[in-house]
Write a structure and sequence with these properties.
This protein is an alpha/beta fold. It is built from eleven helices and seven strands. Strands 1-3-2-4-5-6-7 form a seven-stranded mixed sheet, with helices on both faces. Helix 3 links the parallel strand 4 and strand 5.
């Protein structure tokens, strides 16, 4: 797997979202600063990691993470996941609770309504049938605020370029995992201290979902970012780090 390790201190492992890449955490890491050993990796089928053929399962991603921690000699870690990464982090917390120091879930999903299930499955079908270009064009307004779209076309272009570099079948297989899995009923089993965050105007990982996660995970806290949509790692890394840093220090 393609990995990157930065810094020294207690380990924190960071999982990116579907179609994304490990560098999406750059701004958050810079804003948190030193004091941690940051471990990032490209998910299977993404970035510079192997283009393993699908279909994928959520267990595949959990096993990848467990093997990665073993290879790095990490017994316990803080764990943070964004979007699909947050779903993987939920599953890892359920499968390997003894390996976690804390859990941060950002713009992730649980407890979708029937309408939300239909919408995400439609997006998965669009990605599989029409490719990433159409999917990404439709996603921009869901991911970023209008102000950020106008001010930072460079960030949007880099996100698009990197996403289009993914193998299309691998991208579709990973998105299918995001669309089909839901761990809402098992959330009360998570005993790890947990921070839950999402954007106020995120229509895919809604505040209602974040509230549901925080309500069901016993030792949790919740933050909703005013005005923001889905891609908070790229649009507002300073705000994400401002919530994560004190949480990590006290976990």
């Amino acid at each position: 797997m393609n990995i990157r390790v930065d810094g020294d201190g207690p380990p924190i492992t960071l999982i990116h979202g579907v179609g994304s890449y490990l560098e999406s955490w750059d701004g958050v890491i810079a804003a948190i600063g030193g004091g941690y050993r940051f471990l990032r990796y490209d998910l299977r089928g993404h970035g510079e990691s192997p283009k393993l053929p699908g279909p994928y399962s959520l267990d595949n991603f959990v096993d990848d993470l467990s093997s990665l921690l073993d290879a790095q000699g990490i017994e316990t870690t803080h764990l943070a996941g964004f979007s699909l990464g947050g779903l993987i982090a939920q599953a890892f917390a359920l499968a390997h609770p003894d390996r976690l120091r804390s859990l941060t879930l950002i713009s992730t999903v649980a407890g979708r309504t029937d309408a939300e299930k239909t919408a995400v499955r439609r997006r998965a079908e669009t990605l599989a049938e029409k490719g990433a270009g159409t999917h990404l064009t439709e996603a921009v307004d869901r991911w970023f605020t209008a102000e950020f779209i106008a001010a930072r076309p460079d960030v949007l272009e880099e996100r698009r370029r990197r996403s289009l570099n993914n193998d299309p079948d691998c991208y579709a297989a990973a998105y299918r995992v995001l669309a089909e899995y839901d761990l809402a009923d098992r959330l009360p089993e998570i005993k790890t201290p947990t921070l839950v965050m999402t954007g106020e105007n995120d229509v895919g990982s809604t505040p209602r979902m974040a509230e549901l996660i925080a309500d069901r995970v016993p030792d949790s806290r919740l933050h909703i970012f005013p005005r923001l949509k889905h891609s908070v790692l790229l649009e507002a890394p300073d705000q994400v780090a401002a919530q994560m840093k004190p949480f990590l220090e006290n976990a």
